Amino acid sequence: MKEPLGATGLVFNESLLWEKGRKGRTGFSLPRRDVDPSPLEKGLIRKGPDFPDLSELDAVRHFTRLSQWNFGVDSGMYPLGSCTMKYNPKTNERQASLPGFAAAHPLLPADLSQGVLQMMFDLERYLSEITGLSAVSLQPAAGAHGELTGMMIVRAFHQNAGKPRSKILIPDTAHGTNPASAALCGFTPVPVKSDERGVLSPEYAASVMDEDTAGIMVTNPNTLGLFEEHIKEIAHIIHGKGGLVYVDGANMNAVMGIVSMGDMGVDLMHLNLHKTFSTPHGGGGPGSGPVCVRKDLEPFLPVPRVVKEDEKYFLCWDFPKSIGKLQAFYGNVGVLVRAYSYILSMGKELKRASQLAVLNANYLRIKLTGIFHLPYDRPCMHECVFSDKMQEQDKVTTLDMAKRLMDYGFHPPTIYFPLVVHGAIMIEPTESESKETLDLFVEACKAVAEEAKNDSALLFDAPTKPKARRMNETEAARRPCLAG
Ligand SMILES: *Cc1c(COP(=O)(O)O)cnc(C)c1O
Question: What pLDDT, in 10s, does the model give residues 316-350?
Fold first, then answer.
């Protein structure tokens, strides 16, 4: 293949700022003092923290070098399945840092916060239109938090009807947060097997659904990147026994403007704004996981809610059936601004973004067939799942290949998830990548697969080019170093 991407630049070693500091060095100069220091100031200086003395250039180089040790969407392709590592347009950052948003204090009265309240109100309307569900809460701080909120609403719905239920159906392809969120709400998760085509079968759903089951929690498209094509029929079965259909909407990037969740029989769902609606999230947060519900579940949504009356926006707490408040203030507002900016700048093109995300994934599916094993060989949505079965005879695993891809300048795909595929390699290119980049990725995968066959020692040693070599995967959890 051509020269590998991104692995040939200079990566400097970098010491701690405390090791670099030199007494008396400074990053600023103030006018010469023409008064005596005040006693108060002297006291403060003596008790101050032990900051290193640095020049401005020391500090700039330090943080620039540290940033080069990292990998992000802005430096290369990041095909981390299920995470939607799409490009985050810089205009979103600009809007989120406008003083009216960034400096808005959450305790300001509504009269002085009309702009931010209107932004939240309008964003709820947009998300409602995109999902086909009628009401939205922007409060949850992440996808998993949205799931918890959704499960609390499901529980409240059944309690309100006077018939609390104890179980919830969860497909075997689900993200681990799904059963965790359900269990936190007191439900017993009941695993539902996917069929040989990687989707749920209505017959099986019917065989496990009963009147003590609160509903089903299903990811659509699912984590194999496949559309749950029987969802309408399954929703009918769940509703027939009085249950609710919850959708984990983490994979919404495949179906924006194409599928109405409401029309599919979905009662409630969460979105991951940081995934689908473009907020940088490689570092772990902050995120936002709004919950969207059908009309009759609206009274259970968290309080406070943004309400509009007589052309004025305010926060209303007067929803007696609400599950309560789940987050400090009103959610991660900075992420809301980014999503609002993204949706406004994309408009109807959101649909095209989804179409291109699906096209890119299918392009990779075809190009990588024969390089990696493809357990579910049919058109996929926005991501597709391979395995290391073809490399088994050479004793090369998914982990080895993922590490080796780093030497070729790519972030590894998601590995060993979903659990139903042994040695899973889950690739989500997103709509952001050009054909040239996808082709380069295919070349890199091809080179890695060749090495697996002919020179597997290269893979066991990988990665060799990044700053850090292969990590001990459990050391940080077993022996955490919290002292810094
Ligand atoms: C990312 C993801 C989640 C969890 O979302 P967070 O925002 O990370 O809490 C849940 N389900 C699926 C399918 C996901 O991909």
Answer: 999 999 999 999 888 999 999 999 999 999 999 99
Query: Which of 311, 320, 304 lies closest to 138, judged by CA?
Result: 304
- Edge to edge, what strands does the sheet with 135-137 contain? 135-137, 291-293, 268-271, 244-249, 213-219, 167-171, 188-192
Output the pTM of the full model: 0.92
Q: Which of 218, 227, 248 to mutate to test the pocket of ligand 1 (most atoms within 8 A of CB)?
A: 248
Mean pLDDT of the 109-127 span: 97
CA of 54 to the centre of ligand 1 (A): 41
C-alpha Rg value of the chain to the nearest Å? 25
Which of the listed residues 139, 172, 226, 272 should we mutate to test ligand 1's pocket, taking the one with most ligand atoms within 8 A of CB? 272
Cα 365 from chain centre: 22
CA distance 219 to 232: 14
Q: Mean pLDDT across the stretch 87-107? A: 95
Burial (CB count <10 Å: 0-12, 13-18, 19+), residue 17: middle
Condensed to tens digits (0 to 9), the pLDDT of residues 215-240 reads 999 999 999 999 999 999 999 999 99
The full set of domains in the chain, from first to last, is 92-346 (3.40.640.10), 349-468 (3.90.1150.10)
Cα-to-centroid distance, 137 and ligand 1 (Å): 17
Whether 35 has a pLDDT exceeding 90, the answer reads no
Q: How far is the CA of 412 from the centre of ligand 1 (A)?
A: 18
Q: What pLDDT is stored for residue 31 in this prediction? A: 87
Regarding the beta carbon of 137 and ligand 1, being less than 6 Å apart is answered no
Q: What is the pLDDT of residue 10?
A: 73
Q: Which residue, judged by its Cα, is nearest atom 5 of ligand 1?
A: 143
